[in-house]
């Protein structure tokens, strides 16, 4: 398993548009066989700061995710909405143990 946090700083005037595009991507992503979770969280102190928490079954699943049409649509749509380039960090899950503890139902 692999957990990826994608840290995004959105132009303040584009937050609503960014969230709309990102939620469409998240809903499609959780239907991918290699995606266990795809959470979108927003900073309470800074609504223009959004983190995507992506949980994959294995190390190959992020590449498969990036090959989907919905990812390409999202990537192209949000590029100009970002205040700076997004950054990602890869994590190994510690708890919960096993895929069942991470899996979310399709949205």
UniProtKB/TrEMBL annotation:
Q: Per the record, a Pfam family?
A: ABM
Domain of life according to the entry = Bacteria
Q: What are the protein's GO molecular function terms?
A: oxidoreductase activity
Per UniProt, residues of the ABM domain are 2-91
For this record, the Gene Ontology CC terms, alphabetical, are: cytosol
Q: Read off the InterPro entries from this record.
A: ABM_dom, AI-2_Isomerase_LsrG, Dimeric_a/b-barrel
Put simply, this protein is called: Autoinducer 2-degrading protein
């Amino acid at each position: 398993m692999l957990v990826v946090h994608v840290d995004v700083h959105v132009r303040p005037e584009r937050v609503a548009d960014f969230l709309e595009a990102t939620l469409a991507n998240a809903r499609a992503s959780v239907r991918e066989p290699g995606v266990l979770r795809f959470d979108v969280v927003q900073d309470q102190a800074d609504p223009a700061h959004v983190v995507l928490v992506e949980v994959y079954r294995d190390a190959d699943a992020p590449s498969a995710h990036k090959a989907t049409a919905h990812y390409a649509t999202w990537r192209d749509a949000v590029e100009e909405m970002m205040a700076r380039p997004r950054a990602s960090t890869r994590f190994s899950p510690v708890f919960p143990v096993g895929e069942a503890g991470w899996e979310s139902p399709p949205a």
